[in-house]
Amino acid sequence: MVDPVRGTTQTGNVVVEGETIRSVGEESAGLRIECEGLVCTSGLVDLSSHLRQPGREDSEIIATGTAAAAAGGYTAVSAMPTTEPAMDHAGIVEQVLRLARETGRCDVFPVGAITKGRAGHELAEMGAMHEAGVRTFSDAHHAVVSSQVMRRALIYARTWDAIVANHPEDTSLTEGAQMHEGAMSSRLGLKGSPREAEEIIVARDLILAERAGARLHVPHLSTRRAVELVRDAKARGVRVTCDVTPHHLVLDDSNLVDYDTRFKVVPPLRTPDDIAALREGLQDGTIDAITSDHAPHPPDDKDHEWSYAPAGTVGLETTLSVVLAELVDPDACPDTRGNGTLSMAEALALLSSGPARARDIEGHGRPIAAGEPANLLLFDPGVIWQVVGDELRTRSRNTAFEGHEVRGRAVHTVLRGKFTLNDGKVV
Amino acid sequence: MDDLLSIEDLDAGMITRILDTAEELKDIAVRPIKKVPVLRGRTVCNLFYEDSTRTRISFEVAEKRLSADVINFSAKGSSVSKGESLKDTALTLQAMGVDAIVIRHSSSGAPRRLTEWVDAKVLNAGDGWHQHPTQALLDLFTIRERMGRLEGLNVAICGDVVHSRVARSLVQGLRIMGAEVTLVGPPTLMPSHVESWDVAVSHDLDGMLADLDVCYLLRVQNERMAEQFFPSVREYARIWGMDIDRLEVMPDHAIVMHPGPMNRGVEISADVADADQAVIVDQVTNGVAVRMACLYLMLGGEQTGAATEVTPA
């Protein structure tokens, strides 16, 4: 057992009764599942999943997206407002929640749009969406560029102490940009997105949030300077949290050499130095969560010239395994780093309790203790497997980790005492 | 030779072979019947997703002089405007048994992607800001023809480098062949991380004219002014435009080049464009020979032996 909240590891039984954990360590009289060699931890929590329903059912639906989540070890995901029409009013929030109740295999926490149509101009009805269950507002990969709109959004969201998560990109610097601006973009002849486009908005949002006393979440950091800005702000007491994706922690812009559109993501893949900074941010606690940013696109959409292909990679089924393979030393004890970037306990905290805390996701990422909801993940930390897009449960195939050898795989996922993944099969 | 996507894929030996082949093939243009049968029975498709009459005609002339069957496909008014993707178009051409595809596309990397979908040889006729390899080869050919060599020459490439596939390809070609390259122009038109390019950079055209063997002027598009890369066309012409006064500072043997189409009065004044030192018309003539050489080496080389052994059809 690796408890992500307390950072403790132990061997023993977890007794589940109904929807909750009854005890830890005692013998159980009922159905017994042998977990020899498996790690038991809190179910994973994702802060950014594009489930696409309603509107883009050819990419993903809530049933397939949450099945992918269960297969990846998640018990809770945040549904981004990249629906069509945009999730910018209570009606769509309720529709998503209903679909999730009827067809979902994990809890779904809708993220409402900050502005109408995610267009960055007029505030969406946050109050109605909050009443429907929304705790975080974001325009997904559309940045709120207007400082005035962003300032109002932060101040207005304070009504409920809600969280505003703004995509950090000054779009006046990135019009037509196709990748990270650097030697590689220069060589490939693709317009570059400079780091400062991200850093300017991070800096501005931190200043606005600080003055407003509001809660800010900075999603998918990708540059060294952006990590430093958040680190400094946290030290000053700004109410800010942030996350990073596995692809930004592992892949750099040299992967783009053959214009393979699987590597087209937003923000763009940066450089080894940025990757090092992101990893330092994980180690010192600046970064609160690792997020899949699961962005499914059907093959017909990705099979285009680079500049016509949409950005995004799927991630719900690979995030745990990529993190274990790339950041965690397989020979180290669960609570020590060894030669890895993170200890296993730290990695699991960044995948469950960290994100749950950062975004007020209740009932998930909790300690493994009596009385807690039985939202659990059991995974085999040793199994080595190869990522093959065609074998994933998500409806789309666009994985930036195609062909990568990764480590560790979910075996059982338990949502409130019931299997959503049982012996590797989605239930 | 396999696909021709980028100058980066070639080495000095291969470039020399292409230029030597082009030199032999250039003679065909002065024969009474300008045609040899080396690509008879081969089908070449000119797949142009971006308008370029000059380049398309140059390829078409090259293909016809080699007796290839030529298909012209222009995106305008085609299935593309009905929403067909490049992949679907590629699969259609594949199904029709096309031997080579000459592709021009506004999206960098499109020719590279095309190679994943077809067995036909792919020849890049310009993709986005990325590469224009036959342009670079015809420029190298023209320089070698005039100067007798490429190694050790002092070449300035002046103007809008950042948006120029011509500059990207030519810089690589010149460096592979041992020439020294200086990029000249306003810093806003220099590529980011230009230090990774293995060239010198200068913003002072006047300061370097006296030492140049070749001054290569790039087309400066009017929209760059609208995008505030520089304040006005007049200011650009005054600081970085080639005019007669500047031409006179250059050594007598030096040449002026331009890939066309020219903005007379902006990057090049009308009198320079028509001066003896300007080899812009030679570039166009040599373009046909170089494209013949590339197609010949890609499609015909192994079966028929040297091009010049073939008698006129």
Features of the shown structure:
heterodimer, A: 427 residues, alpha/beta, 5-stranded parallel β-sheet, 19 strands, B: 313 residues, 11 helices, 39% helix
Record the SSE blueprint.
The complex is a heterodimer of chains A (427) and B (313).
Chain A: E1 2-3, E2 8-9, E3 14-17, E4 20-24, E5 39-42, E6 44-49, H1 62-71, E7 74-79, H2 90-103, E8 107-110, H3 126-132, E9 136-137, H4 147-157, E10 163-165, E11 179-180, H5 183-188, E12 192-193, H6 195-212, E13 215-218, H7 224-236, E14 240-244, H8 246-250, H9 272-283, E15 289-290, H10 299-302, H11 319-327, H12 344-351, H13 353-358, E16 376-386, E17 405-415, E18 418-422, E19 425-426
Helix pairs in contact in A: 2-3, 4-6, 6-7, 7-9, 11-12
Chain B: H1 12-26, E1 43-48, H2 53-65, E2 69-74, H3 86-95, E3 100-105, H4 110-117, E4 121-127, H5 133-147, E5 154-158, H6 165-176, E6 180-184, E7 200-202, E8 214-217, H7 222-226, H8 233-240, H9 244-249, E9 255-257, H10 270-273, H11 280-304
Parallel strand pairs in B: 1-2, 1-3, 3-4, 5-6, 5-8, 6-7, 8-9
How would you sum up this structure, described in words?
The complex is a heterodimer of chains A (427) and B (313). By secondary structure, chain A is of the alpha/beta class. Chain A is built from 13 helices and 19 strands. In chain A, the strands form six sheets. Chain A has a five-stranded antiparallel sheet with strand order 5-16-17-18-19, covered by helices on one side. In chain A, strands 9-10-13-14-15 form a five-stranded parallel sheet. The longest helix of chain A has 18 residues, at 195-212. The two termini of chain A are 23 Å apart. Chain B is globular. The longest helix of chain B has 25 residues, at 280-304. In chain B, the strands form two sheets. Chain B has a five-stranded parallel sheet with strand order 7-6-5-8-9, covered by helices on one side. Chain B has 313 residues and is of the alpha/beta class. Chain B has helices at 12-26, 53-65, 86-95, 110-117, 133-147, 165-176, 222-226, 233-240, 244-249, 270-273, 280-304, and strands at residues 43-48, 69-74, 100-105, 121-127, 154-158, 180-184, 200-202, 214-217, 255-257. The chains are: A alpha/beta (427), B alpha/beta (313). The interface between A and B is medium-sized, with 22 and 23 residues.
